[in-house]
Amino acid sequence: MTESTSTTAPGTTATAAAGPRPPRRRVIQAAALTAGALALPLTAAAGRADAADTPRFLHGVASGDPLPDGVLLWTRLTPTADAAPGSGLGPDTAVRWQIATDRDFTSVAATGTVTTSAATDHTVKVDVRGLRPDTAYWYRFTTDGAASPVGRTRTTPATDAALDRLRLGVASCANWEAGYFSAYRHLAARGDLDAFLFLGDYVYEYATGAYAARGTVVRPHAPANETVTLADYRTRHGRYKTDADLQALHAAVPTVAIWDDHEFANDAWSGGAENHTPGTEGDWAARVAAAKQAYFEWMPVRPSVAGTTYRRLRYGKLADLHLLDLRSFRSQQATIGDGAVDSADRTITGRAQLDWLKAGLAASDTTWRLVGNEVMISPVAFLSVPDYLLRPLAQLFGLPGEGLAVNVDQWDGYTHDRRELLGHLKDHRITNTVFLTGDIHSAWACDVPFEAATYPASGSAATEFVVTSVTSDNIDDILEVAPGTLSLVASAAIQAANRHVKWTDLDSHGYGVLDITADRAQMDYYVLSDRTRADATSRWARSYRTRTGTQQVERVHAPVS
Hints:
Blueprint: E1 2-5, E2 12-15, H1 24-47, E3 61-64, E4 70-76, E5 93-100, E6 108-116, E7 123-129, E8 136-143, E9 146-147, E10 151-154, E11 166-171, H2 182-190, E12 195-198, H3 230-240, H4 244-252, E13 255-257, H5 284-298, E14 311-315, E15 319-323, H6 351-363, E16 368-373, H7 387-397, H8 415-427, E17 433-437, E18 443-449, E19 460-466, H9 475-479, H10 487-497, E20 501-505, E21 510-516, E22 520-528, E23 538-547, E24 553-556
Parallel strand pairs: 1-6, 2-7, 11-12, 12-13, 15-16, 16-17, 17-19
Antiparallel strand pairs: 3-4, 4-7, 5-6, 5-8, 8-9, 8-10, 11-21, 14-15, 18-19, 18-20, 21-22, 22-23, 23-24
Helix pairs in contact: 1-2, 1-4, 2-4, 3-5, 6-8
């Protein structure tokens, strides 16, 4: 056992000597029990938030960014009743952490102490190193007689390890006010995930009622105002982390997350955002700095050298995961029709990140190259969609109501970068690239064509799986119709105009499960019965896969067992 002591909070690094590795089946069974057991006590704890002026771990625990030899551990301490998120109140407090190879902590692999304070919103972040590859661990935090829930995590396999399977839960776009996070509960209960991949819009910045379908607020934001200051963003993250289903998922598996625009403001770019008014809402750079600080305090994410979310993880010889930041460096969105979408002077990635991505894809020696991608890279034309569908689609995707061929916030608005990246895949004969995307509150399965106008003759460079929103509004919410009412009609119209689009579901909420073997990558799509019900059920809806070497998706008629 290694003892480590530090006087810093987020960013602490510790090393450890791990104990024996438990059998994988026993680990999975224990994880399922842990996930199911966490929700009830965490709900009770949240209800005692102001009951006593004693330390509490009211926001759960989380782990993230697993490596072969390490993982980030996270929690948030409420040292006194008035030390609410964003308050700036509360004393410096020592917090002890432990990580063990068994849930009863009889075989502790590493332990240490960190001091957290109002300077980091009383969040605690420990980067533990010296662990064993491909090993399950349990972890917890304690202080002054208070103990956190127990979380489970897992390191990734050694970089040269042969891996039979990788299974990721995948989600995006979770608006607190629009409904409950039942998707997280169902992912946590599975017990078979290696990690949870979140593709952006973990929190939303809007004021209460400003982004809810039909003005319906299922549960109100905190703060009630739009998030602009550091205190605002901290408070908003803190409200999200009180959700029992979110806590259960974070405690069950390690998280790998990237941000999108709503972690800052709608349609963010490097110099501003659609939902930011200079002067009235202050300086954009100051708002971004506040949002990023709160994000890295409250999320189990290891920032890259550039201080963003673009970074790379690896799962043995089976897959590497290239995670993007498509907000920090992008040019302002173009105006449709002015020709700027094709300009070489405009970028969605920034030069350094695009070069980093191209180099990583070319150097990859894994079977699969996964790209965690905030906004859709497959081109989408809407010109042939009937008017009664075009107008709500235009609202959903941010297009003018009269109908045009691109969504300029996606890669469609930055076609030079897309052509360069896809040309790089072609020139270097890079296969098995799969883009994993969120953002647009709908589910898609697509080939990524070299040239959409001549597809399929021009061929496919990669494939893309887009997951729908956890709760954020989509077309059925905008049109005030029952889920499933429009999918068949709208999907047929979109696919007629876009032959590389094999399927889309525009009016469901849910999540995906990505299962990867050496032979194929398969996305199983699951939908929720009702986002406004805390007890919403989940059912399998569709599955699509891409077989190795094909760069094409095909339907599968059953989920992976």
